[in-house]
Amino acid sequence: MKIELASSYGFCFGVKRAIEIAEKYENSATMGPLIHNDDEINRLKKDFKVGLYSKLSDVKPDDTVIIRTHGIPKNDLKDLRKNTKKVINATCPFVTTPQNIVKNMSKEGYSILIFGDTEHPEVKGVMSYAEDLDDVNVVLSIEDLEKINFKNKKIATVAQTTKKKETYLEIVNALILKNKEVRVFNTICDATFENQDAAREISIKSDVMIVIGGKNSSNTKQLHSICLENCKDSYLIENENELQKEWFKEKKSCGITAGASTPDWVIQKVIDKIKSL
Amino acid sequence: MKIELASSYGFCFGVKRAIEIAEKYENSATMGPLIHNDDEINRLKKDFKVGLYSKLSDVKPDDTVIIRTHGIPKNDLKDLRKNTKKVINATCPFVTTPQNIVKNMSKEGYSILIFGDTEHPEVKGVMSYAEDLDDVNVVLSIEDLEKINFKNKKIATVAQTTKKKETYLEIVNALILKNKEVRVFNTICDATFENQDAAREISIKSDVMIVIGGKNSSNTKQLHSICLENCKDSYLIENENELQKEWFKEKKSCGITAGASTPDWVIQKVIDKIKSL
Q1: Annotated binding site of B for [4Fe-4S] cluster
Q2: What are the entry keywords (chains A, B) (predicted)?
Q3: What's the rounded Cα separation, in Å, for the pair A93 and A70?
Q4: B231-252: pLDDT as tens digits
């Protein structure tokens, strides 16, 4: 069986940057998981003693705290800066952009629409930057959009950086048809675009697709959804232990892609295991 | 054969308003055709002595000049106001809107994209309001868009009021994928929307479609194009004299729609003629 990697996959700029920051601050701790990959977080813990807090109240005054790539809500950042010795901001710059857009557009009197998942830490952070918290709306689909009554006639919209561009366009189109001015900020990250396009391309020609990444990683789930459109035998796994022999039975070509938080060493282990099956 | 009118058709707000203005100013003249309908212009000429100038140099100091619904270029309006006794502005308010948007966005440093036809008087007028005339781009399709190198990273876009919304969305989508900020002003007129939706609806269930309007009227051509998508026997005519008997042979249902410049009396004559065939 031929095994082929997508032409673009895995670590993005923001994740690489965050890991480099974490490796530089031994004995620090991250506020929430630094990236959506448990294997890499365990490696940072083992090799660099980087701890992990899940709530603000656990943080101690002497801690050096690293802000995760997804960012955190504005007030949490303020509290951390007040109560902790050192705060290192590893928020991806591509996430800082929608945070600033929401702040500025909200100040200028635009109603805010975020295309994303309300429960995702990135979205929780971005939302928190609005001046008027009653006028920030988060949607995942056109159906969600139909339920919204915007306070203003002018709408500004951003997207969670890891979302599918096709769905963003659908939502934006519905907005344009109903509103006289829509200010569209395309905040979907280029790396996300490239990985999505490459996943589309390789899944069309593969008999089986393996998507490697965190089960709670937004960009990994998008890649999986794109692969499923073109290759019904597409599987999302976190590491090589989840591979099942029967997936590859009578298959001639296996395509591989990985989410933006998936380190190369995890991908290599998956490839080695597939070869051995 | 059943003859049915679209649920929305014909005269829009801007055209009605312009005709009322022209009827009020007997012995005046319009700068370019007031609306895109020769029969109605002849009626105004006959009943209200409203003349028609085709170039600025023909205007005399004592004239009362009416600005057509489509508007005219900024400098032409300035010249008219300087050289003529009285200028009455019958520019449709829905056309004044994109003129102002282009002026303001251009001032704020946005590159301007107009979805429309460079040769259409409305577009010539709207374009002229940009501060930087080298940074106003007019496109009719995605192919046109690909040839443009915008001066700025921020793009503001408006549409000719009578264009097809689906094509505008296609162009806007392509813009969004390539640019970080796109400020979308949906300047397609609601009446245009309504007539287009109604034309779509009736053309689906008709065996033959008659679209009545000026051959150089943008909104009439859009209606014809929409009808052709659903009913291959769709004909664009200016008045009843162009009807051909064989169009209706063995047809069970005939749908009728009309452009925004088509007066009811022209539509009625068409219906009477079809009945007589």
Answers
A1: 12, 92, 189
A2: 4Fe-4S, Iron, Iron-sulfur, Isoprene biosynthesis, Metal-binding, Oxidoreductase
A3: 10
A4: 999 999 999 999 999 999 999 9
What is the sign, positive or negative, of the torsion defined by CA atoms of A21, A27, A30, A31? negative
Question: Residue B16, Cα to own-chain centre: how many angstroms?
Answer: 13
Neighbours of A214 (CB within 10 A): 23
Residue B72 contacts A, CB cutoff 8 Å: no
A221 - beta bridge partners? Answer: none
DSSP state of B207: S
Question: Could you say which residues from 179 to 208 on chain A have a Cβ atom under 8 Å away from some Cβ of chain B?
Answer: 179-187
Candidates A173, A175, A189: best to mutate against B (most CBs of B within 10 A) is A173
CA A166 to CA B21: how far, in whole Å?
Answer: 47
Mutate to test the interface with B, among A171, A184, A186 (most CBs of B within 10 A): A184
What backbone torsions phi and psi does residue A66 show, to the nearest 5 degrees? -100, 130
Note whether B123 and B138 are within 8 A (CB): yes
The dihedrals phi and psi of B267, each to the nearest 5 degrees, come to: -60, -45
Q: Which of A40, A122, A238, A240 is catalytic?
A: A122
Alpha-helical regions (H) of chain B:
13-24, 38-48, 74-83, 93-107, 121-127, 142-146, 165-178, 190-204, 218-230, 264-276
Sign of CA dihedral A214, A218, A223, A229: positive
In DSSP terms, A210 is beta-bridged to A235, A256
User: Which percentage of chain A shows pLDDT scores above 70?
Assistant: 100
Integer Cα distance of B117 and A124 in angstroms: 44
pLDDT confidence bin for A192, thresholds 50/70/90:
confident
Q: Which amino acid is at A241?
A: N
Tokens 């009736």 locate to B202
Q: Residue A134 and residue A111: Cα distance in Å, rounded?
A: 9
State the average pLDDT over residues B100-113: 97
Q: Which tens digits make up the pLDDT trace of A218-242? A: 899 999 999 999 999 999 999 999 9
Is A122 known to be catalytic?
Answer: yes
What is the rounded distance in angstroms from the CA atom of residue A240 to the CA atom of residue A271?
A: 8
In sequence order, what DSSP letters do the residues of A37-93 get, joined into one string?
-HHHHHHHHHHH--EEESSGGG--TT-EEEEPTT---HHHHHHHHHHSSEEEE---H
